[in-house]
Amino acid sequence: MRAAATFVAVVRSEWTKARTVRSTSWTLLLTFVISVGVGVVNCLSVKKAIEEGSSLVRADFHPADAGFVGVGMGQLVLVVFVVLLVCGEYSGGMIRTSLTAVPRRGLLYGGKLAVGAGLALAVSLVTVPVAFLASERALGSLAVPLDGPGVPRALVGAVVGMTLIAVFSGGVAVVLRGAAVSLGVLVPFHFVLPTLMLNIPGLRTIAVHLPTQAGARIMRVAESGDATLSPGAGLIVLLGWTVAATLGGYVALRTRDV
């Protein structure tokens, strides 16, 4: 009971820190705005292209999957949020004060990740369904309902995927420490490298096993003919990345000076 109470106290402390930092509310709000806004703009563009018979529309286009395009972009801001949350104390040296107050480094680390994961989950639970509904509304007659085939599973997958990407990024940020370095590594790793690798035949198989691509498979409704990962396999791969990053952050914080 004492260990549990101590962990609760650390989580409360980290939650207080998070909600008193202005960037927390702004980045979480921006996650929502970008997810919804990009999704709507994308679906309006696709609808117009289809109506005009444009050849630019992908052959594997599925109206349900179009509802998650904005969510994929919103993840970028969520990664920024988690990095700032975890690394904020390193820049000003406040991490030493926190470790003095909570000498058990694993406990402090767990508290930070718990708050980050909780906030990521909370914003995802709101963002994902709203972004999907808004995007589908923009598609008009092409839209699919929330209870369409495969949609409920994909909605849950999108929430889980966004949360796991956030936790993964938090673990990596603790390994790298500074926010600038972490973002300099994580943003290209999540949102640039996979796209480049997918266009290189020899690297495509590796690319689909990267965290964001595995997460994208979890929220995909339509099955593509060249899919390397099923949604279930994508979840397992993303969980593996998340566990590895979490353990890496724990070992880094426990074994080196701050």
Radius of gyration: 19 Å
List low-pLDDT spans.
none
Provide the structure class. mainly alpha
Net shape:
elongated
> Count of helices?
12
Q: Helicity, in percent? A: over 70%
Biggest sheet layout: none
> How much strand content do the residues show?
under 5%
H/E series, N to C? HHHHHHHHHHHH
How many independent structural domains?
Answer: 1
Instruction: State the separation between the terminal residues, measured CA to CA.
Output: 30 Å
The average pLDDT is 87
Number of strands: 0
Walk me through what this model shows.
The chain has twelve helices and no strands. The protein has one domain. The protein is mainly α. The two termini are 30 Å apart. The longest helix has 35 residues. The relative contact order is 0.13. Helix 2 runs parallel beside helix 6, helix 4 packs across helix 5 and helix 6 runs antiparallel to helix 7.
